[in-house]
Amino acid sequence: MWDIYLSLTGLLLLLTLLPKIQNSHWIFRVPEFGKIQITYAVLFTFILGFFIGHTEHMLYSQGLLALLFVHHGVTLVKYTPLYPVKKHRQQNESSQKLHFISANVYQFNKEYDKFIKLIEKYSPEIFLTMESNGNWEQAMKVLEKDYPFQHKVTLENTYGMHFYSKIEIESANTHYFVADDIPSIEVHLKTEDGFSFVFFGVHPPPPSPTEEETSKERDGDLLSTAKRVKDIHEPVIVVGDFNNVAWSKSSIKKKNESFNRSQDRAFVCVYVSRQIPSSEVSDRPDVPQRRYFYQRA
To answer: What residue ranges define each of the domains in the chain, with the CATH number in brackets?
Structure first.
């Protein structure tokens, strides 16, 4: 039991230290995605230590685990209801409430009808699909009568993107910030009651052994979007599959670049289509005007 306890402690220390190393290789970036799980594992191992016979080194290992728990907790508490959130006053003039659905549909998924029924059920004013190719574009044509405004980037490399809106599009652009096959979209819209805002759709590649070896393209795409947002004086919403976590250095830098007027704190999770409960796609009343949205449908 002591060997298992010691191995877990060493592994958790390693997973905590790896993201601290300034290296973009996926080995150093992937542990960032597991911070919540690592924190639970630290707590479990700490409790396990009380059931192991006392040794001369137990005090040091338990102290180390306590420090790891505090280290992770200080970061994670900012994204829980325990942390105070800055209140945003509603302006005298505000637009009607708008609803968005952002969905990474998985290019090789053939269950088009399920997604179409999801859109018909919730009827958002705007929805964005990622990993949507020509087959998905053809399947979603049945929705075009309800969503007359569209911006489509049809690709077969799992980075296609389709934007559908009931709100009038004033202009739309496709950006290729870091690679000529990784698009981001910028759409300027105007509501019927005269309010203008800008919608960004992003889907950078993740650092992983099966995708990009490093996080350079992901970080570059997100930071390029942030710099573009910084130059816009209208309300902005950035939506997509960021392949990132809120506490990573690139996310914090992106927020400092563009969203420095407010601090958003919440877990907005990514789900696999077979696991997502339908209630998760409804709008959240506590979401501030500027926020990151993650949703996989």
So the answer is: 2-79 (no CATH), 100-293 (3.60.10.10)
